[in-house]
Amino acid sequence: MEPLLELKRVSYAYHTKNGETYALSDLSFQVQSGEFIAIVGPSGCGKSTLLSLISGLLRAESGAILLNGKEAETFQKNIGYMLQKDHLFEWRSIYRNVILGLEIQGRLDEKSKERVENMLADYGLARFRDARPSQLSGGMRQRAALIRTLAPDPELLLLDEPFSALDFQTRLSVCDDVWAILRREKKTAILVTHDLSEAVSMADRVLVLTKRPATICADIRIQFEKENVTPFERRSEPEFKDYFNEIWKELNLHG
Ligand code: ADP
Ligand code: MG
Question: What is the pTM of this model?
């Protein structure tokens, strides 16, 4: 099966007045449609740079990034990008925040409006449709940001430490929510996180990056014997700490 996303020997350096920062070195991997990938690595190793390259915000200096077998440039609109900060605008209602991407892309029509209304209802935000972002809890805001990212129906979702601004308890429940939403919407996702527990609890596969310039030092498939366990439930399954320790070891060897 052709992978949804393929990176072939991608390298990238930032060139500034003060010299060059080599961020990524010879990085290759494939993502199949429907997979949930987590990427972990030491702080400053190039994780955000990697997502910016995949989204098309940055151009790779060497190597290739293919989505459905095609080179970059035109595919950004098939990719949804969600960041640590939810970037909801206080002067817009939740509904008007959520349709923002569609509006910008000129794709707001009856069908997409209905999709958005359905997602707000399915994911517990219908009651807050006309509220302002400040009236929502941190977890609800992140859910709204996710719906906004999903509204244009992207093929691939990039999540850059989307939970790190939340307190621990909220974070656990938002992980469950986001995981369930992405599963239900059958989305392919790449989650960048420095939290190993989060990676093991949510992903089908964890890629471990070395310190800068980042390259992949381990590609670990995560499988739990028990089926249909939520991220929160995974945390108390016996496999959890084995995966955690395996990734921890890789990070300490190469991080
Ligand atoms: P991570 O997300 O893993 O913490 P980043 O991808 O943000 O790491 O950054 C990787 C390296 O590139 C860091 O050393 C960072 O300081 C550097 N860097 C990031 N953005 C820029 C930029 N716009 N100009 C110069 N250097 C940058
Ligand atoms: Mg980062």
Answer: 0.92
